[in-house]
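Q: Can someone sanity-check these two? First one:
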Amino acid sequence: METDRLLRTDDRAELSSFLRACRDRITPEQLGLPPTRRRRTKGLRREEVATLAGVGLTWYTWFEQGRDIQVSEDFLRRISRGLQLNRAEQEHLFALVQRKPIPTATPEADVPKSLTAIIHRFPCAAYILDSCWDVVVFNDAALRFFPDLKSPNPNLLRIVFLSVAYRQMVRNWSVVARLVFLRARHDFLTGGRRPVLGAILDEIMEKVPQAESWWHDPEILRIGDITVEFNDPKTGWTTYNLSILSYEDHPNFRAVMYTPC
């Protein structure tokens, strides 16, 4: 059976905090467990998680404490089921236990011409991100929201967090920025911890005080659709749905397309 060890002390601490947060958010009543009078916390006890997951209490306790133990993929899947983790949270759990994702067979290459054509023909703002959130293709409509795209080698994370123009363009910047940061954190932890993306996140946490606390945020989010309100130069404040599309033959590229609500 394939096993891994918890190698980094920082990850062990993050793992403990993450598991406790997941355990605390579930009440026994939600799972149909009988209520008990003597309960110090509203969440699940460790023994209840172990029972629901079908693992030993001692092993789960050591795991939650971040001890240097060997764990299998089956153990992690059982814990995921016991704690009712969603897909993003499962990926986060596996990343904290140092399980690297299966590498894609297709290396990052030039964006396919067909995908580039779709972006340029799309009537609203649209662009393509690579695995480090660099904007590799964008249409003219995207410049209405992101004038910084004209700069050399634009990166969406740097624009969202470091561009004054973007902050003035979006409603509730801190709310939007937190959601973007959590998604980028998830990409970093579950995508092989790319040094370039890690350096960008470090830069953001150094320059944006709120971001450092977001790194330890217990909410786990993966890349996905989002709704954002922009001050469109043509229509004023307008709400847009951002659809995130993956390209099957080139999974390292994501197309982001804006449609007004």
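And here is the second, same format, sequence then tokens:
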Amino acid sequence: MKNLIIAAIALFTLNSFAQEKSAKKISVQTSQEIDSQNQSPEVKAKIETKKLIKQLDLSSEQREKVLDVMLKHFTLKQNPRQNVKEKTALKGKSDKAELKRTILNQNQELSQELNEELKEILSEEQYKKYQQYNLQKRKSYKKVMIKEN
């Protein structure tokens, strides 16, 4: 009987430690996302360009063009909520859903513009690799978002 009680206590103790580790992993990932949100557009553009250089093996001319495109993209994407409020008359709390929809549409348009500009800079093979890289990035982001909720 004593052994059964000790085994049950040990099982519950180990289980609680396992849950704490997974919670810490999620909090580390979200803190990294928060840090990336607080970075300037220049830093974000340099980081993303370095990733693309590594993934796509860009030439020096392509590197400069990609950095310019990324800088433009992250500058426009810096504060979408403020940009939308300035451009539209959405000021009240009742317009919150409309504001979210407008921000989502704006982000989609910015992503499309980025993809079009990169398509002009990259070769066909590089662009296919970029699309795969982008797809993997979105999948990993979705996994993190699912774990948070």
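A (reply): Looked at the second one. Residues 26-31 have pLDDT under 50 and may be disordered. Residues 2-38 form the longest helix (37 residues).
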